[in-house]
Amino acid sequence: MALVEFRDVTKVFDVTPTKDNRRVRTLTVLDHVNLDIEQGEIFGLIGYSGAGKSTLVRLVNALTPVTSGSIKVGDVEVTTLKEHALQELRRGIGMVFQQFNLLNSRTVAGNVAYPLAVAGVKRAERDARVAELLSFVGLTDKAHAYPDQLSGGQKQRVGIARALANHPTLLLADEATSALDPETTQEVLALLRRVNAEFGTTIIVITHEMEVIRSTAHRVAVLDEGRIVEQGEVFEVFSRPQSPVTARFVATVIAPPPSGDALAALHAQHPTATLVTLRFDDTATDQTHVYRRFFDAQVTFELVAGGIEAIGAHRFAQLTLALTADNPDALADIPSLVGAGVDVEVHA
Asked: Residue 263: is it exposed, middle or buried by C-beta count within 10 angstroms (0-12/13-18/19+)?
C-alpha cells in the first residue's frame, strides 16, 4: 500500500526578475515525476546536485508548492490543503536535515520537546516523551547539554529524536549523513533502520551517496535533471543498472569491469587467455554451477579483477576471469559455456 504517491508532478521556478518586476525565465526542477512510496519501507532517492531531490521531498509536506500534478500522503491530497490542514499534515511528517537545524539556545531536551510544545502537548506527557526518545537515540546523559557541546553524530541523533517527537508516520531524511564522517554515518543509518524496524515509520532518504542507499534502503529511485530515470528494488538497481547515471552511481561502490589501460595491462599479463567479465547473483544462479561447467569443459580460469558484494539479503558477483583451454573450441561460445542466469562480457 502506497503511503506517498506522486502523479505527473512538475515544479517550475520563476527566475530572473526584470526591472518592471515581471519574471521572464523559468526553471523546471521536476518534470512529470511519478512515484509510489510504500507504507513501512525505507525508500532511497538519489541524484547528483541539482537533480531536484530536495525540491521533491519539500513537496511532500508542501514546504514548496507544486506547479502541477498530484501528491497524496495516505488518502490526503496535499496540493489542495489549506494552511490549517497543512499544519496537521506536517505534524505527522518528521524531517531530519543535513545541517541538523537545532536551536542553539535550547538544551538537547529542549530541542526534542520543542515540536511537542508547539503541538500543545502537556508538560508531563512532553517530559515523558522526551525521556523516551533520548533513551532510544542513546543520549539520556546529554539531556541538559547544548548543541555546541555535541559532536556531529550526536547532533544528528538529537535531530532524529526531535523528528520522532509527534509519532510521525513518515520521516524525511534530506542528506542526513552528508556532514558526517564514515563511521558516524553508519551509526546514524543504523539508527534510521531501527526507527523503521521498531516503529514501522516510513522513511524517505535523500542522498547523493550510493553507499547510503545500499546499506539502508529497500527500494530506490534515481533522479536526473528533474526526471526519474530508474527505480526499483535496491538489489536489482545495483546488480543491473539500466541508465548511464545509475551506472555511474553504482560504480562508486562496485568497481566496473576493467577497461582502457587496466584492460590492456591484463591482456599483457595473460596473452594467451580470453578475458571475460561475468555478472551474476544468488537469485539467478549459483557460482559453483558456473565453475563446474568450466571444469567439465576442461577450461582453466583465474580471477584477475572484481569481487562479490553483499546488497541487502543477496549477493552479487562481478568477476573478471582469464580463461584458457587446450581445446580452442571450448571457448568458442562462452555464453553457452557459462549457462543461463549470467551476464557475459568478452573483452577483445
From this structure: middle
Q: Which CATH number fits domain 2-250: 2.120.10.80, 3.40.50.720, 3.40.50.300, 3.40.718.10?
A: 3.40.50.300
Give helix 123-136 / helix 152-163 axis angle, nearest 10°.
Answer: 130
Residue 338 has what DSSP assignment? H
Count of other CB atoms within 10 angstroms of residue 162: 27
pLDDT score, position 19: 64
Query: What pLDDT sits at residue 257?
Result: 86
Residues making up the chain, counted from first to last: 348
- What pTM did the predictor assign? 0.87
What's the CATH fold of domain 260-347? Alpha-Beta Plaits (3.30.70)
Contacts of 189 (CB under 8 A, 6+ apart): 177, 212, 215, 216
What Cα–Cα distance (Å) separates residue 321 from each residue in 68, 177, 254, 284? 51, 37, 17, 19
Pairing of strands 227-233, 274-281: unpaired
Cβ neighbours for 171, distance < 8 A, ≥ 6 positions apart: 93, 94, 95, 96, 163, 164, 192, 195, 201, 202, 203, 204
C-alpha–C-alpha distance, residues 204 and 174, integer Å? 8
Could you tell me the three cell numbers for 173?
A: 531524511
- Determine the pLDDT at residue 196: 97
Q: 225 near 240, Cβ under 8 Å?
A: no
Q: If you write DSSP's letter for every residue of 200-249 in order, what string do you get?
A: --EEEEEES-HHHHHHH-SEEEEEETTEEEEEEEHHHHHHS--SHHHHHH
- State the 10-residue block means of pLDDT for the chain, 348 residues long: 95 76 78 96 94 93 94 95 90 91 95 94 95 97 96 95 96 92 93 96 95 94 96 90 92 85 92 90 73 91 87 83 90 88 87
* Residues 10, 66 contacting (CB under 8 angstroms): yes
| H/E segment holding residue 329 | none
What type of residue is 22?
Answer: R
Q: What angle do CA 333, 337, 338 make, to 5 degrees?
A: 120
